[in-house]
Amino acid sequence: MKIIKAVKTHIISGFLGAGKTTLLQHLLKQKPENERWAVLMNEFGQIGVDQRLLPSQEGYVVKELLGGCLCCTSQLPMQLALSRLIQEQQPDRLFIEPTGLGHPYQLLEQLSEPHWHGHIDLRALVILVDGSRLHDASWTAQNLYQEQLQAAQIVVISHCDLMQDSDKQALQSLKEHYWGRVDHWILAEQGRLALAQLDIGLRTMQRQLKPLIHLQKPIAQGEESVEIKALPYHYIQHNDQYQIAGWRLPKHWCFDFYLLLDTLTDLDGWLRIKAIFNTNQGWKSFNFNPAQFNYQTQPENLDNRIEIISQTTLDWGHIEALLLACQTKQD
């Protein structure tokens, strides 16, 4: 009986038209003759097209899931399909291509559950970005586009041969914006990329949602910590190099804009600050690095939120107290 080893599993995601299937075509051509590979593709609609675009040859199998994204409406079908694919095909390597309308971080969280330990060996999350559309603010400002980038460990820039100067400038801004989050930026012409560039272990991030620091109570001996999902909450996640502390606060909490701006600019020890707040001057976004303090008017958001990236542990309780003191009204 063959012993089933954890399958090296790559999630190849990206927004609509980024070139995920083209990249998969090139990756599949790199399969060693003695290995068996598998692909699980997800189409948001009810008619599968992408599967027909992959070259047909022995040594790998392609399965499709239609009607919704893997991380939302199709969670149970995804888990069943993935389990069956691994058990029946026993692949040496697996590629998962979520729909361009999917939420890769949620999928990553699902596949990081203990149930999958020993079955899949998650590799670095890959997000494709269409380099020729980086200049298009109406495209790059979409929430789902940004959410996918926030989950990325590797960003592959496709259609780079079509990039204009404005695209290249936008790419540099993008790198600065996601500095400390994205480990690798790779330019790929026509989807041509060596598998070795993507075959990197998943960066482990410890993240747990908790009540606001000033609301937390000490955990008694033998008591379990309970993760909270409702607003308001905060979290701290970290890897070997960076810490990211974040807060999400109810939408109706309003903050004094100038007091908040002074508070953020007076903070020390951070590498990056990104935030969206409902203020008495309207919704404002903040994008700070040590060299630039940028803020601008922002469309109404789902909630107030802020993330602070640092290389050392800051006094998060003190920072939270400063933020809350900027409120103009309480519950």
TrEMBL record:
One of its GO terms (cellular component) is cytoplasm. Residues 244-327 form the CobW C-terminal domain. It comes from the Bacteria. SMART domains: CobW_C. InterPro entries: CobW-like_C (IPR011629), CobW/HypB/UreG_nucleotide-bd (IPR003495), P-loop_NTPase (IPR027417), Zinc-reg_GTPase_activator (IPR051316). It holds the Pfam family cobW. Zinc chaperone that directly transfers zinc cofactor to target proteins, thereby activating them. Zinc is transferred from the CXCC motif in the GTPase domain to the zinc binding site in target proteins in a process requiring GTP hydrolysis. This is CobW C-terminal domain-containing protein. It comes from Acinetobacter rudis CIP 110305.
